[in-house]
Amino acid sequence: MEQNQLDLETFSCSICLDLLKDPVTIPCGHSYCMNCIKMLWDKYEQKKSYHCPQCRHTFTQRPFLQKNTMLALSRTLLTFTGEKNLIKV
């Protein structure tokens, strides 16, 4: 059961609580769906306040978001190999 929980946590976005879609990892190391973190940071654009929703680390400039290809590939392989008992798509 602990293995299932780890896999779900690893591949889930803490903003939308769904599986990561176009995963990005921000400078503090936490990962989110690209669209989710963009929408969150767009809300704070006028204040120029960007932070991580998990650890609250604050960034002075809006970090550049680039797709985390390793997370995307791992999620794809996990779901493709029939491990549907770990991740429901």
TrEMBL record:
<feature type="domain" description="RING-type">
    <location>
        <begin position="13"/>
        <end position="56"/>
    </location>
</feature>
<protein>
    <recommendedName>
        <fullName>RING-type domain-containing protein</fullName>
    </recommendedName>
</protein>
<dbReference type="InterPro" id="IPR051051">
    <property type="entry name" value="E3_ubiq-ligase_TRIM/RNF"/>
</dbReference>
<keyword id="KW-0863">Zinc-finger</keyword>
<keyword id="KW-0479">Metal-binding</keyword>
<dbReference type="InterPro" id="IPR013083">
    <property type="entry name" value="Znf_RING/FYVE/PHD"/>
</dbReference>
<dbReference type="Pfam" id="PF15227">
    <property type="entry name" value="zf-C3HC4_4"/>
</dbReference>
<keyword id="KW-0862">Zinc</keyword>
<dbReference type="GO" id="GO:0008270">
    <property type="term" value="F:zinc ion binding"/>
</dbReference>
<dbReference type="InterPro" id="IPR001841">
    <property type="entry name" value="Znf_RING"/>
</dbReference>
<dbReference type="InterPro" id="IPR017907">
    <property type="entry name" value="Znf_RING_CS"/>
</dbReference>
